[in-house]
């Protein structure tokens, strides 16, 4: 998995898109690896929060266009390619741990989908955003467009998709595409990830499931109720109350 680096320390996993010579453009193989990776994080109780970033100067210039003739040439290949893109985005969106995108330089097209699939986006002042699908005659995918619309609203989403124009970190913050500008995005993401890794995993997983379901308009009430019950019956609920009585920080296990 050399185009995707994974580091895991103190409960914080850092996933780095690493093709700096190609501005970390994401290949078909990488979309599929990302889906597998984030599904595996879901099952790994040692991972409490996840950062997604890019190696070198950029987050990513999006899908690797240079391989489109080979892997996204005709209609059937395009469909299969989009399934892989959506699987990666949705695995990131649905992982039950908090996710933070640390962004600098270019964040374009499919890379914006990856960033939007995270719970939070922190960007450096030099970050450049665009979804240039209208320069390639591609309709941005349903899953990605829905995430864009949920973040910025329908009018801004139309501006971004119809115009294919670039926007900077300040504009991205203004419209809600990102939620923080920082001098060092990775350091800021680490601070946030470490803080979230201390909190009750079952609370975060439950809140994320309910909020994602509300954002998508597909909330499964029965599944949400099961998560609420699981937290109420958990070791961590006992630990949280005991820590309050002992006037100490709780030590949560996620069960
Ligand atoms: N797919 C494949 N290769 C890409 C890429 C992409 N999306 N984005 C950049 N690269 C490659 C370039 O082809 C170049 O490779 P080369 O040195 O072998 O020619 C290398 O990365 C460096 O990029 P370069 O274009 O030389 O840098 P630049 O500063 O002149 O321009 C961009 C940077 C991002 C503006 C420009 O590369 C670009 O427009 N990329 C495509 C962006 C895009 O449309 N993304 C949406 C895809 S869904």
Description:
With 255 residues, the chain is of the alpha/beta class. The chain has two domains: 4-196, Alpha-Beta Complex (2-enoyl-CoA Hydratase, Chain A, domain 1), CATH 3.90.226; 200-246. It contains eleven helices and nine strands. The strands form two sheets. A six-stranded mixed beta sheet has the order 1-2-3-4-6-9, sandwiched between helices. The longest helix has 20 residues, at 75-94. The chain is globular and about 60 Å long. The protein starts with a strand and ends in a 9-residue tail after the last helix. The model has no long low-confidence stretch (mean pLDDT 96). The structure holds coenzyme A. Coenzyme A binds next to strand 5. Coenzyme A is lined by residues 22-23, 25, 61-66, 106, 108-110, 132.
- Which compounds are bound in this model? coenzyme A
Within CATH, the superfamily of the largest domain carries the name 2-enoyl-CoA Hydratase, Chain A, domain 1
Q: By helix and strand content, what is the structural category?
A: alpha/beta
Order of helices and strands: EEHEHHEEHEEHHEHEHHHH
Query: In the CATH scheme, what's the topology name of the largest domain?
Result: 2-enoyl-CoA Hydratase, Chain A, domain 1
Taking the sheet with the most strands, its summary is: 6 strands, mixed
Determine the fraction of residues in helical runs and give it as a percent range.
40-55%
Structural Rg: 19 Å
Mean pLDDT: 96
Number of strands: 9
Net shape = globular
Across the major sheet, the strand order is: 1-2-3-4-6-9
CATH class of the largest domain: Alpha Beta
Number of helices: 11
Overall domain count: 2
Stretches with pLDDT under 50, minimum 5 residues:
none
Strand content: 5-15%
Please tell me the CATH architecture of the largest domain by its name.
Alpha-Beta Complex
């Amino acid at each position: 998995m050399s185009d995707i680096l994974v580091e895991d320390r103190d409960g914080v996993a850092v996933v780095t898109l690493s093709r700096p010579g190609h501005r970390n453009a994401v290949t078909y193989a990488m979309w599929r690896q990302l889906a597998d990776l984030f599904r595996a994080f879901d099952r790994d109780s040692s991972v409490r929060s996840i950062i997604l970033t890019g190696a070198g100067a950029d987050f990513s210039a999006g899908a690797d266009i240079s391989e489109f003739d080979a892997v996204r040439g005709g209609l059937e290949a395009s469909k299969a390619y989009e399934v892989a893109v959506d699987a990666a985005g949705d695995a990131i969106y649905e992982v039950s741990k908090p996710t933070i995108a640390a962004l600098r330089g270019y964040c374009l097209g499919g890379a914006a989908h990856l960033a939007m699939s995270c719970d939070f986006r922190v960007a450096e002042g030099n970050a450049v955003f665009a979804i240039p699908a209208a320069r390639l005659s591609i309709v941005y995918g349903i899953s990605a467009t829905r995430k864009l619309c949920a973040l910025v609203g329908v009018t801004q989403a139309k501006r971004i998709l119809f115009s294919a124009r670039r926007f900077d970190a300040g504009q991205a913050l203004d419209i809600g595409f990102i939620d923080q500008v920082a001098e060092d995005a990775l350091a800021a993401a680490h601070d946030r990830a470490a803080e979230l890794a201390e909190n009750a995993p079952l609370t975060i997983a439950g809140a994320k499931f309910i909020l994602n379901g509300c954002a998508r308009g597909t909330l499964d009430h029965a599944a949400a109720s099961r998560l609420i019950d699981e937290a109420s019956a958990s070791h961590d609920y006992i630990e949280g109350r005991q820590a309050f009585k002992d006037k100490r920080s709780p030590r949560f296990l996620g069960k």
